[in-house]
Design a protein that fits this description.
- It is a single chain.
- This protein starts with 13 loop residues before the first helix and ends in a 13-residue tail after the last helix.
- The chain has about 190 residues and is mostly helical.
- Helix 1 runs parallel beside helix 3, helix 3 crosses helix 8 and helix 8 packs antiparallel against helix 10.
- The chain contains eleven helices and no strands.
- The longest helix has 22 residues.
Length: about 190
């Protein structure tokens, strides 16, 4: 396993980032009570499924997309880990301050207004995983009202983001429906 200290001098790669996010998200669960660390891996996999030519910085940002919100990591920490400025900007743009009381759609509108296509790509991939049929079904069994509310939020977000970067929303929704359901896990960094 890669060394996880903050004195890193080489540029991190995807394998390192997968190992680090597993450590950071250890013990966390998603809305359905499932281990959270699998979510960012699926988001990274989604970003590669939709945007085949995306850079490794985008994939690493997809892996890191929740570390500021959920793990107490800062942009400065990411800089100390030697992540690229582009990766750090993406992660910062898709992160919402817990004290921010704006509506989710307002946050999405601000992301679109930033003009950062790569950050929008990561948010599309994130929303795709949040709408995965298995995740939706698991949440429906626990809290049908919350599942309906979140489903509407993520569908609206995906439509806006797809329009903003000029990709076919029907293709994206089709990829969600066609996503593998058995296991619904991505095998480490085979991104």
């Amino acid at each position: 396993m890669p060394h996880m200290g903050f004195e890193q001098t080489t540029k991190p790669d995807i394998d390192y980032t997968v190992a680090w996010i597993k450590q950071l998200h250890a013990g966390q669960t998603d809305h359905a009570g499932k281990p959270y660390a699998s979510h960012p891996q699926r988001v990274a996999h989604n970003v590669r499924r939709v945007f085949h030519d995306c850079s490794d910085d985008v994939v690493m940002a997809a892996l890191l997309h929740d570390v500021i919100e959920d793990c107490g990591i800062t942009a400065t920490d990411l800089k100390q880990k030697n992540y690229s400025p582009a990766c750090i900007e993406i992660v910062s743009l898709v992160s919402k301050d817990p004290l921010d009381e704006r509506d989710y759609q307002d946050v999405i509108d601000d992301l679109i207004a930033s003009g950062n296509r790569e950050a929008m790509m990561v948010k599309i991939a994130d929303n795709m995983d949040n709408l995965h049929p298995r995740r939706v079904e698991e949440l429906l069994q626990l809290d049908s009202k919350k599942a309906a509310r979140l489903g509407q939020r993520y569908r609206q977000s995906l439509e806006k983001l797809c329009h903003a970067i000029g990709i076919n929303k029907d293709r994206v929704f089709g990829l969600i429906k066609a996503a593998p359901s058995a296991g619904h896990e991505v095998q480490d960094a085979r991104l």
